[in-house]
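Model it.
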Amino acid sequence: MAGDQAMTTQTEKRQRRQAAKEARQAERVRQGRKARIRRFAFRSAFVLVISGLLGGLGWWVFQPKPGTYVPSQGNAHVGSEPVGFRYASDPPTSGSHAGGSPAWGIHDRQIPKILQVHALEDGGVLVQHNCTDCDDLVRNLKDIVLRYPEKVILAPYHGMKKRIALTAWSYIDAFDEFDERRVVRFIGAYRGID
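Modeled.
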């Protein structure tokens, strides 16, 4: 009987050790599974963040720019308006120009083309209007231009086909009806791009 009891005790000890070993092994499996889930979650979050950043960057880079692209005619500095030279757009968006720039802000007189182009080369945006009896339009354009202490010019431009023209280096947008959102978007897209 004593031998049977000793055997039972040894068997129980072995069973307890086996159960403890199995419990430790099961805990290691659970911990490994938790670690794999954490790694998977971290990697997934990382991939989502990177994808979001790349998607946002792609949208920003490839979104349509406001206005119409006009191929650059270069940026040669000249002393006076070159004879026989024709700008690719009216008002101009690039090409030969004078060494001086007009002041940023509001002008009451038309700015010569060779000065307009230099302002564009320096990262400026020109907001020009072709109307004589349109005080409301000019006032609305002034209100927008006054928001920008530099790199934006408002001036009349006689003889263009539309009432309003927005120009930046190699870009133009011309239209007849005042559209604040359109003007602000154009300025925001090109102002300061030298």
